[in-house]
């Protein structure tokens, strides 16, 4: 999950200070795969970890145009995409500056349309999903000239998770867009009973941390600034930023990736697809899979989903080499602390569950799978919510 931030305050110095703190704060737990900003004139982006980048404040000072909002993005690269500066956000087209959180997949039936567009873009080949979407958005804007209709048309070629911060150059307008599964949160800032700023950020915990740092920093120079309660933006909604307010201007649907449910799997076919090595290699791969499921209290249905989320292949279509790649490259990123796993195991044992019900994630919108949650406060929130969720199910079953 990448971290998107939109920031605009009454004074340029406030905007620059908050953005600086936000970029560093958003990189505490993960998101080490590059960062970038757009401050009203020219984009800056790098593949460097923000915490390892020297002179962030000077860079923001140089790239911020007075009185403009700042769009910033710290990247957590999708599996299989290169960590290079060109793949950091934001992306620029003739009409748009776009930063994206999530992973988009081209829908079946839209491949030919996008392949044709690529020829007009100089036959670009190594585009990540976010840049591809930006170029499709540009193409649709030529026809429509209106937002959010342009967004809706562009999204009709994609499925998957998305939240966007977009600057539309011809309109000189900023748009904040949230799909269904990607988070976005907002808070405003008050000084002397006057609204002086607005910030949007992906993760509530990171936003809360940055707000605390910012307000403490401003107090140290004699400015008493407070923020309103952090609010979650509505799902599948397009907002227009205007004078420290977000105005709802439209709705946009998120299409889920196609996932093959494991209940439909033919076990004999699964063996043919996955186990294509020697008997000894087959047994090792089976044992490694079982160990992975046991270690993280997962079902085979969970494994099917995770394979789709990371390799975009299901249990029926993945082969032995790809499964080995999953264990060697992907699972290494799934390393929760022992206490987090222990807390979850204790709750599952308490309610006699072998795994976390998938409905828990869908209802409470926690990061899936849980092994990606690195922040301790969010882990504690997850554990508490899981305990409450399973207790409610347990209480209902005893009625």
Terminal-residue CA separation: 39 Å
Q: How many structural units, i.e. domains? A: 3
CATH homologous superfamily descriptor of the largest domain: Aminohydrolase, N-terminal nucleophile (Ntn) domain
Counting H and I runs of at least 4 residues, what is the number of helices? 13
Rg over C-alpha atoms, rounded to the nearest angstrom: 22 Å
- SSE string: EHEEHEEEEHHHEEEEEHEEEEHHHHHHH
- For this structure, the CATH topology of the largest domain is Glutamine Phosphoribosylpyrophosphate, subunit 1, domain 1
- Report helical residue fraction: 40-55%
Structural write-up:
The protein is of the alpha+beta class. It has three domains: 3-251, Aminohydrolase, N-terminal nucleophile (Ntn) domain (Glutamine Phosphoribosylpyrophosphate, subunit 1, domain 1, 4-Layer Sandwich); 262-333, no CATH class; 338-397, no CATH class. The chain is 40% helix and 19% strand. It has 13 helices and 16 strands. Strands 1, 2, 3, 4, 11, 12, 13 and 14 form an eight-stranded antiparallel β-sheet that branches. It has a six-stranded antiparallel β-sheet with strand order 5-6-9-10-15-16, with helices on one face. The chain is globular, with a radius of gyration of 22 Å.
Please supply descriptive tags for the structure shown above.
single chain; 13 helices; alpha+beta; 399 residues; 6-stranded antiparallel sheet
Overview in brief:
Helix content is 40%, strand content 19%. It has 399 residues and is an alpha+beta fold.
Strand and helix map with partners:
Blueprint: E1 3-9, H1 12-25, E2 35-38, E3 43-46, H2 56-63, E4 70-74, E5 91-92, E6 96-101, E7 104-106, H3 111-120, H4 129-144, H5 149-155, E8 158-160, E9 163-168, E10 173-178, E11 185-191, E12 194-201, H6 204-219, E13 226-227, E14 231-232, E15 237-241, E16 246-251, H7 267-274, H8 279-295, H9 300-311, H10 320-330, H11 338-350, H12 358-364, H13 376-397
Antiparallel strand pairs: 1-4, 1-12, 2-3, 2-4, 5-6, 6-9, 7-8, 9-10, 10-15, 11-12, 11-13, 11-14, 15-16
Helix pairs in contact: 1-2, 1-6, 4-5, 11-13
């Amino acid at each position: 999950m990448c971290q998107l931030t939109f920031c605009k305050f009454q004074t340029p110095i406030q905007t620059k200070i908050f953005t600086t703190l936000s970029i560093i704060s958003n990189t505490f737990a993960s998101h080490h795969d590059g960062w970038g900003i757009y401050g009203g004139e020219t984009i800056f982006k790098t593949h460097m970890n923000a915490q390892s980048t020297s002179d962030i404040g000077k860079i923001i000072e140089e790239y911020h145009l007075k009185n403009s909002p700042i769009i910033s993005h710290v990247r957590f690269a999708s599996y299989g995409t290169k960590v290079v500066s060109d793949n950091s956000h934001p992306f620029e087209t003739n009409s748009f500056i776009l930063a994206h959180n999530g992973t988009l997949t081209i829908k079946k039936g839209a491949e030919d349309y996008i392949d044709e567009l690529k020829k007009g873009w100089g036959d670009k080949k190594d585009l990540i999903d976010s840049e591809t979407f930006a170029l499709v958005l540009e193409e649709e804007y030529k026809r429509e000239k209106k937002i959010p209709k342009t967004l809706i048309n562009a999204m009709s070629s994609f499925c998957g998770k998305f939240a966007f911060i977009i600057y539309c150059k011809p309109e000189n307008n900023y748009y904040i867009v949230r799909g269904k599964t990607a988070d976005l949160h907002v808070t405003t800032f008050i000084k002397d009973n006057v609204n002086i700023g607005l910030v949007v950020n992906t993760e509530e915990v990171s936003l809360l941390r940055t707000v605390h740092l910012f307000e403490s920093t401003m107090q140290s120079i004699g400015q008493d600034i407070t923020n309103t309660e952090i609010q979650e933006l509505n799902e599948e909604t397009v907002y227009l930023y205007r004078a420290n307010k977000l105005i709802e201007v439209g709705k946009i649907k998120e299409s889920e990736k196609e996932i093959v449910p494991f209940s439909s799997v033919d076990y004999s076919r699964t063996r043919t697809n996955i186990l294509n090595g020697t008997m000894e290699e087959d047994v090792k791969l089976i044992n490694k899979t079982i160990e992975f499921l046991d270690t993280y209290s997962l079902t085979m249905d969970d494994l099917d989903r995770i394979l789709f989320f990371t390799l975009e292949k299901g249990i029926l279509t993945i082969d032995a080499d790809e499964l080995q790649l999953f264990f060697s490259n992907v699972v290494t990123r799934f390393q929760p602390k022992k206490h987090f796993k222990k807390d979850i195991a204790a709750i599952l044992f308490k309610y006699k569950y072998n795994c976390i019900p998938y409905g828990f994630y869908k209802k409470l919108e926690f990061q899936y799978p849980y092994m990606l949650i690195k922040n301790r406060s969010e882990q504690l929130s997850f554990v508490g919510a899981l305990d409450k969720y399973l207790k409610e199910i347990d209480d209902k079953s005893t009625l």
